[in-house]
Specification:
Elements lengths: L8 H35 L4 H10 L2 H28 L6 H16 L7 H13 L1 H29 L5 H23 L10 H4 L2 H20 L2 H30 L5 H15 L10 H11 L5 H27 L13
């Protein structure tokens, strides 16, 4: 091989990193295109003057009360994560976890980086308990949350007697999501390291993969307990109930009528499940479509459904600003005291 054709280890790593960045950029571009298409599909049938009239009917008390409730909901979701950590034998104050959660929301929505909320939470918590265990806790918390929403949504559809093609499709999707969440939790407790071919285990990289798989399984086994499962389901029910109260409050002031809280809870579980699919940029477009299609089955006008979706962006902006403030005022700590993963 000539000197021109030779590839040094550093160059090879740079090439792999460049290829990885290219794939990320392509995936982001596809997400952006889909978001733009979905937003256009909603916007073209929207009566903007009617939406403006609805917004004008909302009182200052609603915005203040709804914003405070949205912050409370985020704190409750953080408490669910704390229960997962307690199941793993790690005690962390709710105040510190809440700070990490809000900082993660800021990075996920507005920071000029590829960092997401889960990565930020894993980074900060990993300095204290190890990055593998921290990552497992974040992953288990996310799976439990999505699984709880799909189970609750799937249970409410037949209990409330909701019918029609949209709710039939939603019930099917919710059942599939519930099954996927259950399989994901089950797989995290299986000895996945035994599935790695023996010849790979002879290499340093293969040994590292085997070690990480074994450590992840050990942490996941302690994270998925009756305590964490019960805490997840209770948190989902309470938070969906509070969010349904916000939606009912909005609809009452904006349109003068609202579906029942149970119907709204069911719709919210389905909307949030769809909006969490990683096919658009931060759920933009997908969230609006989910609100419009699912809430239409409850008789909610398109403009009101889109208004509720836009309300989520208001909460997102508020909580991102809180996260930004907590980040720039975060206490400094010596890196030498960090726990190695």
């Amino acid at each position: 091989m000539s000197e021109d054709q030779a590839t040094f280890p550093g160059q090879e790593q740079q090439q792999k990193a460049g290829a990885k960045k290219g794939r990320r950029a392509l995936f982001f571009a596809l997400q952006a295109v889909l978001s733009a298409v979905l937003v256009y599909l909603v916007a073209r049938g929207l009566n903007w003057s009617s939406l403006a009239e609805m917004a004008g009917r909302l009182s200052p008390g609603f915005f203040i009360g709804a914003s405070l409730l949205s912050i409370l909901i985020t704190v409750l979701y953080t408490a669910r994560w704390q229960q997962v950590l307690l199941s793993m034998g790690h005690r962390a104050p709710l105040s510190g976890l809440t700070r990490q959660n809000f900082v993660g929301i800021f990075f996920n929505n507005f920071a000029p980086s590829m960092l997401g909320q889960d990565a930020v939470k894993t980074y900060y918590l990993g300095r204290d308990m190890g990055y593998v265990a921290a990552g497992v806790s974040v992953l288990v918390d996310k799976i439990l949350g999505l699984g709880g929403m799909t189970v609750l949504g799937a249970a409410l559809i037949p209990l409330l007697g909701l019918s029609g093609p949209m709710f039939t499709a939603a019930l099917t999707a919710a059942l599939l999501f519930s099954l996927a969440a259950g399989l994901a939790l089950l797989s995290m407790r299986l000895p996945m390291e035994r599935l790695i071919p023996g010849f790979l285990a002879r290499w340093s990289l293969g040994q590292r993969i085997v070690e990480l798989a074994a450590r992840s399984r050990a942490n996941a086994g302690s994270a998925v307990t009756f305590r964490s499962l019960a805490a997840s389901l209770v948190t989902v029910i309470v938070c969906m109930g509070l969010t349904a109260c916000i939606y009912a409050w909005f609809l009452t002031e904006a349109t003068g009528t609202t579906p029942g809280l149970a119907q709204l809870m069911c719709a919210l579980c389905l909307v949030y499940t769809v909006a969490n699919l990683p096919v658009s940029v931060n759920g933009i477009g997908l969230r609006e479509q989910a609100h419009a299609l699912i809430l239409a089955g409850l008789g909610v006008p398109l403009e009101a459904a889109v208004g509720l979706s836009l309300l989520q962006y208001l909460f997102m902006t508020l909580q991102s600003l809180i996260g930004w403030g907590l980040w720039i005022t975060r206490p400094r700590r010596a890196e030498a005291g960090a726990v190695q993963p």
